[in-house]
User: What shape does this take?
Amino acid sequence: MADFYEKLGNLDRRIIFVLIALSVMIPIIFNMVFPNPVGAEPSRDMFDYVDALPEGSNVLLSFDYDPSTMPELQPMAEAIVLHLFQKNINVVGMALWPQGASLGQDAMSSMADSLGKVQFEDWVNLGYKTGGGVMIVRLGSSMSAVFPTDRDNVPWFEIPMLRGISTLESFSLIISLSAGDPGIIAWVMMAGDRFGVPIGGGCTAVSAPTLYTYLQTGQMVGLLGGLKGAADYETLVGIVDGQAVRGMAPQSVAHVVIMLFIIIGNVAYFSQRKKGGVK
Assistant: This one.
């Protein structure tokens, strides 16, 4: 038995790499989908807050990310936009990151087409504007001064759904889908704390722990963290075969395989140590 553990401890790393690769590839090839139960999590808080908004409310959705974080954040964007459209809520999109405007356009236009929502009446994309936190403060005074036109150069005052919107206080909720700075933290400090507008957000998994403090202090109404957060929102909205839900299968299997190797490595180490081969 000791020899068996010694062989495990000296397992060729190439075998480990192959098994990790297979743990990712097999769920993708066979389109495996695992159940995704959603408990009392920040993602449910976000869903519940949006679900409680009255019909006709205005929501500002800021796409503060780029293609490098699309696998985690684009499914969030599509699920949130779908939920807002299902609730007949007016969606105003914008971006603090240059490429976020195009990614937001893709999310809003695809969901609008599936639900028959009309651009300029039900949704609009204002596009990208530089400035980060300083620009957000300016939005609190006059949005039309910051965005005189939308992304397609249509003048602000020619867009029907913007006629009742003047400042950030015209919105019932601001949601930032953020891959970094500027992003959620800028919105919390410059819009939430300064103008009293509720803030929700979505972020990459690696960023989520740094944002939990804002949930605990009540400065955010909810948070979607990483692929799991996106899968939670897809599940709550009713997207049974969404990108994030499908993506959770290879991620979950790979994590299980990695944990098994960690356990095997520790068992092999302590077995050899007991034998006297490792100090």
About this structure: The beta strands are 58-64, 90-95, 123-128, 173-178, 199-203, 222-225. Residues 243-275 form the longest helix (33 residues).
